[in-house]
Amino acid sequence: MILHRWGLIPYEDARAKMDEVHAAACRDGENHLIFCSHPLCYTVGSDDPGGWPVETIPTDRGGSITCHSPGQLVAYFCFQAPEPAVFYRMVRRAYDALFADLLPQARYDTNRPGWYVGNRKIASLGFRYRNGVSLHGVALNVDVDLEAHNRVAPCNLAGVTATSLAAEGIRITMEEVEALVHEALLAAFESPINVS
Q: What is the pTM of this model?
């Protein structure tokens, strides 16, 4: 797993750089993991209905609207994913393990993909696949401005608000969360899921 740390980077710049990393992953056959965060912005995926009260940035991932801001750890995956469903389950397994240690009440919802504490969304995910390699990833709210995040319903889900590790009483730095996510992903991808 090749690790890229980009720090705080505008979303559009990160998206362009992700294409470069994706091309490298297609050439070298390696898994490339990118950690970064973005200045405040709202991105919309291919399922977006439009009509938002905020300016949005269109993307080619799935899903609807997602808020990005400082204090959110974004993990972008340019991973070998010849079987996207298997790749997705391995990412989910890693974050399930992370939350089992950090915030056991957080649960993945298969009907509304993402992790929630009750009706409060703490992490969103969305992927796209091209040439057998994944794009996009998971956004985990560590310590964000929840007022900004709640200007829109996360992923356009009725009755859902945004939360963060800090808001749920978990005091941890971005660097510590990054290390834990990296560790969880290494463990998950070292034990591939058997497809039956």
A: 0.94
